[in-house]
Write a structure and sequence with these properties.
This is Rhamnogalacturonan acetylesterase. By secondary structure, this protein is of the alpha/beta class. The protein has 7 helices and 17 strands. About 45% of the residues are buried.
């Protein structure tokens, strides 16, 4: 039922005043192949790590200063959101980080396949696919004094999808998959394999699906969301018609996971922000309906994120809905931190409402959530990652 733990030793590091054991990390310690801060990026602390799941325990708090700390992992996966600690107090928080690389077990002689995922050029330098665990420590007054990293055996939720799911690498972009971890207890890992520009066909041909199938274990969960790019008839090599081939690919993904003892969950795509008066004009309705139909026929749970996203946008209205989208609202498909957080919260709410087994891993303090009454974007706060050139998602 549980994933194989990473093969690595427990690592402990100490920072700043009041150090409490572990390897002392000077503020100017550049990553040296084992640990340290990423060159030119002093908010990013990396530790060499083999692929697997890790429990990260951070000690927060300073003797004379109140602190507020936000931590993201790998490609800006949200782990801790604005944890406040009064001066003179210390608290410990833990979370699970999934680490992976692009290597595949080479296929037998004369068998089809490959030895590595076919990464896009910009992925080759991403923290998602490297040989280390990277933490981004943020906040006006961050208070990390110690970090402990240990390999663990926990179930894993694998996310398969496109740019509306992936871990977007730079501000102001974000997608719901990279926010999801913040809504779960530290007893389950989120492994986000989604990537911008992907379709169900390309996910197979680029060996991303092979990578996921190589990693999954009985008891894991796979959440599958495609559609934005599959519907593009102008992409003839990967186009999949909603009434035929798209449904067949969904069934194929479901069958492969079930054969391995993995629970599939279908998620239909969040809608684009196209208006007809005060109502959203659907552009993905056929694909959203196909997901519902396949889910019903195959007895697979469906997260209706398409319907939830429409409720969110219409509740915000044409004037405020752009505040949920990237590039200052000029992008009508991809989200910013606020939009990604709201959609991830909607996903968590549907998991809870459907009483899926996965709901047992949700945080106990989440409360209820109504997509028709989203939080006010004017009061939403999430500490931004360090400035980097904006990367426009593929398929935009």
């Amino acid at each position: 039922m549980l994933a194989t733990p990473a093969v690595a030793q427990v690592r402990s590091f100490a920072f700043g005043p009041g150090k409490t054991g572990g390897t002392t990390v000077p503020r100017d310690q550049i990553y040296n192949g084992d640990h340290g801060y990423e060159p030119g990026r002093p908010t990013l602390f990396s530790v060499r790590a083999a692929p697997g799941n890790y429990r990260v325990t951070v000690t927060l708090g300073l003797p004379r200063t109140a602190t507020e700390t936000t931590i993201k992992a790998e490609n800006r996966r949200l782990m801790l959101d604005a944890v406040k600690v009064p001066a003179g107090r210390r608290v410990k928080r833990d979370f699970i980080v999934n680490v992976r690389d692009a290597a595949l077990v080479p296929p037998p002689l004369n068998a089809p396949g490959g030895a590595s995922v076919l990464l896009k050029p910009r992925e080759k330098t991403a923290f998602t696919w490297d040989d280390r665990l990277t933490l981004e420590i943020l906040g006006a007054t961050p208070g990390v004094t110690a970090i402990r990293i240990e390999p663990v055996t926990v179930p894993t939720v694998f996310l398969l999808g496109d740019s509306t799911v992936t871990d977007q690498p730079t501000e102001p972009g974000a997608s719901w998959g990279q926010m999801l971890t913040a809504f779960f207890k530290p007893d389950i890992a989120i492994a986000n394999h989604a990537e911008s520009g992907e379709t169900m066909k390309s996910f197979i041909s680029e060996l991303r699906f092979a990578k996921v199938l190589e990693l999954v274990k009985p008891g894991d969960v796979a959440m599958i969301q495609f559609g934005h790019n599959d519907q593009k008839a102008q992409w003839p090599q990967t186009y999949a018609a909603a009434e035929t081939t798209y449904r067949d690919y969904l069934r194929t993904f479901i069958a492969e996971f079930r054969r391995r003892g993995v629970t599939p969950i279908l998620v239909n795509s969040p809608e684009r922000r196209n208006w007809n008066g005060a109502k959203i004009t659907p552009t993905l309705a056929d694909y959203a309906a196909a997901v519902r139909a396949v889910g019903a026929a195959e007895k697979v749970p469906v997260i209706d994120l398409n319907a939830a996203s429409i409720r969110v946008y219409e509740a915000l209205g044409p004037e405020r809905a752009p505040l949920a989208f990237s590039d200052g609202g000029k992008d009508a498909t991809h989200h910013d931190n606020y939009g990604a957080w709201v959609l991830a919260r909607a996903v968590a709410a549907e998991i809870a409402a459907a009483k899926l087994p996965l709901a047992g891993h949700l945080r106990d303090d989440l409360g209820t959530f109504d997509p028709g009454r989203p939080p006010d974007p004017a009061t939403f706060r999430l500490t931004a990652s360090a400035a980097q050139p904006y990367v426009k998602p593929d398929g935009n």
